[in-house]
Write a structure and sequence with these properties.
With about 300 residues, the chain is mostly helical. Helix content is about 65%, strand content about 5%. α5 (about 135-150) crosses α8.
Amino acid sequence: MTAYQHIRSNKRRSVLLIIGFMIIILFIGAAFAYLSDAGPGALVLAVGIATGMSLFSYYGGDKVALLTSGARGPIAKEDNPQLYRIIENLTITAGMPMPKVYIIEDSVPNAFATGRDPEHASVAFTTGLLQVLENEELEGVAAHELSHIQNYDIRVMTIVIICVGIVSLLANWFLRFSFFGNNNRSSRAGNVGLILAIIGIVLIIFSPIISKLIQFAVSRKREYLADASGVLLTRYPEGLARALEKINMYAAPMKRANSATAHLFISNPFGKQRKWRNLFSTHPPAAERIAALRSIA
């Protein structure tokens, strides 16, 4: 499979997952409106609150991510000429602005990109990563992170987080309404109403888990997409494959690992995950990513 085919496949799957998310939200909103006296106003309110909270994170999340990870910078070219030149050359190749470059004092090799668009982007690399990787491997990691920026992955994940917020709010309101609210569900006769009520209750109860699974699935697809897009920049998939092998050797978590920013990193900052937890991980297994990279023609 070519890099272009990998990119098309992962973009298509990301879109399908988000469409599925939207359908679930619409169904929950319809069920909530039918089973309560709130009507469609509850869905509109949930969309407004979730969007407002997510937009605040969207515009200020990069600063929070850099602060919580302990990143220092932005560095100048003379602070780390090798890293700076690699990123500079890749941005010229990609035709994108030079992002701000940060360094994280941590022996665990890792890196992340953040920023709502290429004009407001930052990339951060741990000292451990800079120490263990060869030039071609570091170039592969840098290309991966720049691809996240170029593919607007922060924007995509913001949409997903808005969807998660809407589902969580509706589920919470529904449970409160069910236990404490005065409702007229009993007066809504008919088999259709009963079936809708049962489906709505089941879906709303399990929707927080479903929404999180979809969020993690989208995050994993964007990692595959960044891997394939990065290969188009370097034209050398083996560089990133070897980098991932070295990164995967470190089982220890980062000193300032944080669940809120874990999805940003090239590798899970909490260290290796057990196989059964892959479904609930923001990152695909390293072995699968490496195999996908080495299958690119």
